[in-house]
Design brief:
two-stranded antiparallel sheet, alpha/beta, five-stranded parallel β-sheet, Rossmann fold, 127 residues, single chain
Length: 127
Amino acid sequence: MQRVAILVFDGVRMFDLAVATEVWAPHRTVPDLPAFEVRRCAADRSPVTLTGGATVAPDATLGWLRRADLVVVPGMVDPAVPPSEPVTAALRAAHRAGATVASLCAGAFVLGAAGLLDGRPAVTHWG
């Protein structure tokens, strides 16, 4: 079973979180495709405020990123607001541990802030 960590923090776009959750949803039952263990990870287990004011309760903390096979960073409202050091440190640790790290839309700015795009070409959607 593949482990998927979806990073959540205040200002994450609800749509991006929903897309990532649905794509790797653990209830997928398509024959011959791998099963996934999905966790929404944050600095702690306190509710996180998404766009539109909705909240989500994280399933795990940032430490779980080191156990993940795939880490997904959803887009956020304002990519000019830098992510916290614990978030960028957790992303770097997950990458060093061998996780594939991906982003949706403006989540690419979080990967850039973590230094994971240094010296690499990257593209992202405009919004």
